[in-house]
Amino acid sequence: YVKRNCLMISRMNPFLNTEGTLTPSRRRTQQLSRTRMRRHGHLQGHRNKRGWVWNQFFVLEEYLGPEPQYVGKLHSDMDHGDSEVKYTLSGEGAGSIFTIDQITGDIHALVGLDRSEKAFYTLKAQAVDIHTGLALEPESQFIIKVQDINDNEPRFLDGPYSASVPEMSPTGTFVTQVTATDADDPTYGSSARIVYSIVQGQPYFSVDAKTGVIRTALANMDREVKQQYQVLLQAKDMGGQLGGLASTTTINISLSDVNDNPPRFTKGVFHLHVPESAAKGSSVGRIQAYDQDTGSNAWVDYAIIPGDDGDAFDVVSHQQSQEGVILVKKPLDYETKKSYTFRVEASNAEPDSRFLHLGPFKDSVTVKVSVVDVDEPPVFTRASYVMDVYEDSPPGIIIGSVTAQDLDPSSSAVRYSLEWQTEADGCFDIDTLEGTISTNEQLDRENAAQHNITVVSTKLNNPLLFSKVSVIVNVLDVNEFPPELDAPSDTFMCEKSRVGQIIQTVSAVDRDAPPLGQRFFFKAPKELRHRNFTVRDFGNNTAGIVVRRSGFQQRVQDVFLLPVVVEDSGYPAQSSTSTLSIRVCSCEGAEPHGPLLSCSAHTVMLPVGLSIAALLAVLLCVALLIGEPFTYLRWGRKDKEALMTSREDIRDNVIHYDDEGGGEADTEAFDMSTLRHSQCHRTPFSPDIHRESENIREFIEYRLEESRRGFGAPPYDSLATFSYEGEGSRPGSLSSIGESFITDLGDFGSLGDWGLPFKALVSILDRQTHTVSES
Predict the structure, then answer these.
(1) Residue 289 in 3-state DSSP?
(2) What is the Cα 660 distance to its own chain's centre?
(3) Can you tell me whether residue 28 is helix, strand or coil?
(4) Residue 271 contacts by C-beta under 8 Å, 6 or more apart in sequence?
(5) pLDDT tens across 678-732, in order?
(6) How many angstroms separate the CA atoms of 382 and 596, rounded?
(7) Which residues contact 181 (CB under 8 A, 6 or more apart)?
(8) Quick one: where's region Disordered (predicted)?
(9) What angle do the packed helices 693-709 and 627-636 form, to 10 degrees?
(10) In the chain, what is the greatest distance between 2 CA atoms, to the nearest angstrom?
(11) Is residue 114 a contact partner of residue 149, using CB atoms and an 8 Å limit?
(12) How distant, in Å, are the alpha carbons of 118, 251, 358, 401 from that of 166?
């Protein structure tokens, strides 16, 4: 070993001999070089260069010899063997592990070394003068490497190991890889070269000798046959050669499950029982098909095969127990059907397509369910009842009946009662034996249009068994309220309104509940045919007020009253009459055909009501004052037609004057008693009345024409009267006071509600009516 170190050093420096010293030829070369340098004066102060260089030494690990292990020798060119040079050593382990002979330069290892703990040491060496201690050359660094020997066996650091491989796997399927480590030097020899082999576990598994990869060696291993396997694996160094160190580890290999087995029922028929009172969704019983697989591969789906009696039941899968739970799907009745028979199919929820060739992955079984009879409450013939009653029906009227039956073999009698939930339920009563429902009092649809009552049926032999049913009572509307006209209080029109023009659209409202398609009909009263306006029914529950003539004048008459009859389509039909107030407007500068909401403010002459006797007295006075023109009018206008020949053409305005004064209540302006008792003034003229009747009629027609055309009107207060046509006239009187008011209105008592002025008018008209009646 010492020679080997020396040779290695020699290979590093060819001028070293086998003992690590300089050869004679190299020494002579150095001496000649120094002589030349002295001659030329270059030796003094010149740094001496080391003549040889070492790099590393080797020491054998785990040395057990009695003496310190020799490592190598250091020598300097400045050492001539005269013991004038001393060698020093420093660095890792200097003095404790390694030592050097200061005179000879020999290095020894004092203790045994372990390469696995430390593979090399770095040290420094230097040659110094033994007397002065001065360095003869610079310090040099070298390495001492610990030479490896095969003193460490391979080790499995994580053993024992566990692995898994799917069952039914083909040959060569990867299972796992196991690796061992060796603390020896892998760069020196074969101490760390490991080889793997299986000691136990064949023929099921194999291992790659170099990589330690374990694979299946037998195909189609079945988990249901054997699930766990144990493999003993060995790792040996020195490439597996004889003398190498070895170790073993255990690998536990399990076969994981695949879905290679179908579910199977253990018997052919399942018998179940269920009471007929079982509610929908309640459990009847459980069936089970067993699957040898585990986990999700053992999940089983259950389904009822269509047909037979399976429509009354359902089946669901229980995820934990993998059982099929039979549930009630429809109500059961022992009296109707006592047993059910159907088939249930079990199949894998997640089949594996690789194993479908092994056969169908499903199975079926017959299920028989027997219905058990129980004592049940009475059953109503309907789930709910709806009854109708008119709101004007008298108390005690029967509105309907309910029926419940006991379907059990005992067939007990049934008693009926009402379950009062609200105060309104007290409006009804029920016959406990027959189940007929009647009213206790008269119903009002306007208060409650519908009642919801609950009827209870109880078995006579077991009062604890009862059932309930809902009865809805609809209160039907009776046409008890007449429709009401829906129109503005006042309607306005222009003087220039055309014939056929619609001046107002009206509708109607009814407090009764309108049935589908209810209609309102509008018309004028048959006994009062108005010549100025008419009512036109549009057919859509609306109507229009239509003008029948033209030539209206506000100063002649500014207000017209039009009665309108509204009738509904109910049974019995109800109707009401409303009076529209139509006001005439001048509409100066306004569009005559446009809608009017009001009239512009201006002075309007009001009518003054006088008795017939007063009017006749005034007419006679006027006739005597203008006797001459009568003769002319008699002969000159004999052929002129009468302008007012119809009974319907009646003027309500008799007297117009601009100064209203105190109204009808003002009796100071003239003596009312004189006008009321005109007999004293008529006596002197009574013989002439018959003779001048024709003249008066023609005079009235002449003035009427002037008034209608609007020309020749005097610019002062005037009294225009034309209430007397003469005795025996066919058309009858034109006076609205003498006849029209009586015909149209009859009783004037309602006019008193319009205020104080009209109360005086009512008193006059009442006396006038009595006078006419007596005549």
Answers:
(1) strand
(2) 74
(3) helix
(4) 368, 370
(5) 443 444 444 444 445 666 776 777 677 666 655 444 544 445 555 444 455 455 5
(6) 62
(7) 154, 155, 157
(8) 18-43
(9) 80
(10) 205
(11) no
(12) 46, 16, 17, 73
d(CA 142, CA 108): 15
Beta sheet of 264-265, edge-to-edge order: 264-265, 283-290, 323-328, 313-317
The amino acid occupying position 573 is A
Between CA 134 and CA 88 the distance in angstroms is: 12
Query: Across residues 264-290, what is the average pLDDT?
Result: 92
Quick check: 536 pLDDT over 80?
yes
pTM, two decimals, is 0.40
Q: Are 221 and 169 in contact (CB under 8 A)?
A: yes
Place of tokens 């697989």: 293
Quote the CA–CA distance of 162 and 137 in Å, as a whole number: 64
Among residues 508, 604, 496, 611, the alpha carbon closest in space to that of 565 is found at: 508
3-state DSSP helix/strand/coil percent for the chain, to nearest 5? 20, 30, 50
The alpha carbon torsion through 277, 281, 286, 290 (nearest 10 deg) reads 160
Name the residue with higher pLDDT: 333 or 599. 333
For 394-447, the DSSP string reads PTT-EEEE--EE--STT---EEEEEE--SGGGGGEEE-TTT-EEEESS---TTT
- Closest alpha carbon to 410 in 376, 379, 435, 383: 376
* Residue 84 neighbours by CB under 8 Å, 6+ apart: 129, 130, 131
Give the position of tokens 């070895």: 246
Element (H or E) spanning 628, and its range? helix 627-636
- Indicate if the alpha-carbon torsion angle 742, 747, 751, 757 is positive or negative: positive
Specify the pLDDT at position 743: 39
Give φ, ψ of 169 to 5 degrees: -80, 150
Task: Give exposure, 598-634, as e/b (b: 16+ Cβ within 10 Å).
Answer: ebeeeebbebbbbbbbbbbbbbbeebeeeeeebeebe
What single string gives the DSSP state of each residue in 155-216? Answer: B-TT-SEEEEEETTPPTT-EEEE---B--S-TTSTTTT--EEEEEE-TTTEEE-TTT-EEEE
Q: Please name the amino acid found at residue 513.
A: A
Which residue has tokens 């809608």? 595
Tokens representing 623?
């006739």
Distance CA 599, CA 589 (A): 12
CB 363 within 8 A of CB 262: yes
In a 3-state reduction of DSSP, which class is residue 566? strand
In angstroms, the CA 146 to CA 112 distance is: 10
Rounded to whole angstroms, the Cα distance separating 29 from 16 reads: 14
Q: Residue 770 — left, alpha, or beta (φ > 0 → left; ψ -120 to 50 → alpha)?
A: alpha
pLDDT at residue 19 in the model: 40
Query: What angle (nearest 5°) sits at the alpha carbon of residue 97, between those of residues 93 and 101?
Result: 100
Query: What's the CA gap between 735 and 612, in Å, rounded?
Result: 9
